[in-house]
Amino acid sequence: MSEQPKALSQQDARRRIAVPTAAMLPRIGESLSFLFLDMMRIIQDDTGLIAFPAQPAPNRRLRIPTAALSCLLLGPGTSITAPALSTLARNGTTVVCTGAGTVRCYAGITAPGQSSKWLEAQAGAWADPERRLAVATRMYEQRFGQGVPSGTSIAQLRGLEGQRMKAHYRLLAQRHRVQPFKRSYDPEDWDGQDPVNLALSAANTCLYGITHAAIIVLGCSPGLGFVHTGTTHSFVYDVADLYKAELTLPLAFALHASEQPEAEARRAFRHRLKLFRLMPRIVRDIQTLLDPTQADPQQAEDGPELDDVQVVHLWDPAAGTVPGGVNYAAGEDTPWLA
How would you list the strands of the sheet with 32-37, edge to edge? Predict the structure, then answer.
């Protein structure tokens, strides 16, 4: 007689349920935006991730919805275990570590099994000077809200953008009666900065985290920038700049009299993400910027599927791509296989 399978123990059953499957993962457009934690310890238990204060406190535990979370911001004094990081990796959640004064240090986690379609589109456009200039021009045009004359150089675009930002700073300063205002970012003298600069740096940190999450989900490289260069997060800064004038700048000036500008900026920014539906916009904009002919507006609005079965192809210089998982040996007596 065949042996009957042993019944799963309660602990084994809970662990099996806790392992996320592709069908459990939501679209990026439906995901929660981000969660900021500081002075916390994050661990993996039998059913998921739990965060609790670094200093033990009764009844202060937080369940982290990893399968529906786009970005986890880890502030000062936060620690996380290796099993917890593994769970975040399986769910495709981006982890962003921020130091004292929200000095940024990114750690991106790419979900396995993603298509390389948009990575290849990004790399191809980045490596071709003409296509790279075209993408950079489309970025500036989106920030200007209008087209630019044909033949405008990248240096001229930088100058136009500089004038635009000065005018925008001046307008917001006059509206909120903040005079004079000068943008500054000095990690060495963080507490000596005014509330507007503190709020702007905090909001930008959150924006960079959300942008980084969208780039990772699409399978693109954060380091291949078209306007920015020289850092592993050049493309993050490129894409985030598209939304600062609309999102983080007005928010920062509105907090010019705040006693806790950084905390209030994070909370207000999270609320604005729901109003602006920022994550689907970022996905759609990245696709349109990289290759307008391939962008799928409906998919960008809903967000890329994470549970699609991705077929791996093989590169061929003549045919382009050929199906993978096929044995292409001509026969046992093929000379070059001997």
Answer: 32-37, 69-74, 94-98, 104-107
Radius of gyration of the chain (CA): 24
State the Cα–Cα distance between residues 53 and 78, nearest whole angstrom: 9
Residues with Cβ within 8 Å of residue 93, at least 6 apart in sequence: 66, 69, 70, 71, 72, 109, 213
Does residue 128 have a known ligand-binding role? no
Q: Is 333 annotated as a binding residue?
A: no
Q: Could you report the per-residue pLDDT of 303-336, keeping only the tens digit for each?
A: 444 434 445 677 777 776 777 666 666 655 555 4
How many degrees, rounded to 5, is the angle at CA 211 between CA 173 and CA 22?
A: 150
Task: Walk me through the domains of the chain, giving residue ranges and CATH numbers.
Answer: 29-107 (3.100.10.20), 117-301 (1.20.120.920)
pLDDT digits (tens, 9 = 90+) for 211-257: 887 787 678 899 999 999 998 889 999 999 999 988 899 999 999 88
Q: Is 228 annotated as a binding residue?
A: yes
CA distance 129 to 170: 35
